[in-house]
Design goal:
- By secondary structure, this protein is α+β, with helices and mostly antiparallel strands.
- The chain has a domain at 55-178: Metal Binding Protein, Guanine Nucleotide Exchange Factor, Chain A.
- Helix content is 35%, strand content 19%.
- The protein is globular.
């Protein structure tokens, strides 16, 4: 018994050491994955759409096959068989590719052509115009100013005082409802307010200000 006792003690100590090291090894292997996830999230949050090189985007991965056909191959969807041709809820229409604002719902009207139609863009430089000679009659193609996605065409037969009819493919746009727009605006105001507060110099305490003729 006396000879076997030291051997049992040694085996027990070795076992305890091995078990004590296992959790540390597991934590070490899990740490890089966590750091990579945090880095990816931070990069995405810091992304400024205006600073992205949209010419380098893999559009086949970013868009559905039909969205790619419409926006990157200048396709045309069927009239009266698309998402927004008779859709008139309040909100904003943005580019499906890069999210740039294109049209407000107030500018939308029923042109009876089977495609969503607008009489003006949300801002003057929201789109770019290009000569399209694919048909017998020359047409004016419109593209997203930011990512150059094909959106549709503009015609000079609009019924409002602008005289324009921006004829869009529904698949080239995504709709943002009015409620979400208000939430985005509130978030932007809070972010701006916080940034202004951080950058504001600290005011001197009133008790530390001395006026002429006054002494403690």
């Amino acid at each position: 018994m006396s000879k076997s006792l030291p051997l049992i003690v040694v085996v027990g100590l070795l076992s305890a050491i091995v078990h004590a090291q296992e959790p540390a090894a597991a934590d070490k292997s899990a740490k890089p994955a966590k750091d990579a996830s945090v880095a990816a999230a931070s990069e995405e949050a810091a992304e400024d759409p205006e600073k992205v090189d949209w010419s380098q985007v893999d559009w086949r991965k970013r868009l559905t096959k039909f969205q790619y056909y419409i926006t990157r191959e200048a396709g045309t969807e069927r009239p009266f068989r698309n998402e927004f041709w008779n859709f008139f809820k309040p909100g904003e229409y943005r580019c499906v590719g890069c999210g740039a604002p294109l049209f407000e719902s107030d500018a939308k009207f029923d042109s009876e052509c089977g495609w969503p139609s607008f009489d003006k863009t949300i801002i003057d430089k929201a789109i770019t115009e290009h000569l399209d000679l694919k048909m017998v009659q020359p047409r004016t193609e419109i593209r997203c100013r930011r990512c150059e996605a094909h959106l549709g065409h503009v015609f000079n037969d609009g019924p409002t005082d602008t005289g324009l009819r921006y004829c869009l493919n529904s698949a080239a746009m995504k709709f943002v409802p009015e409620k979400q727009l208000k939430e985005e605006l509130t978030k932007t105001k809070k972010t701006g307010s916080a940034a202004a507060t951080e950058g504001k110099p600290a005011e001197k305490p009133v008790a530390a200000v001395e006026t002429a003729g006054e002494k403690p």
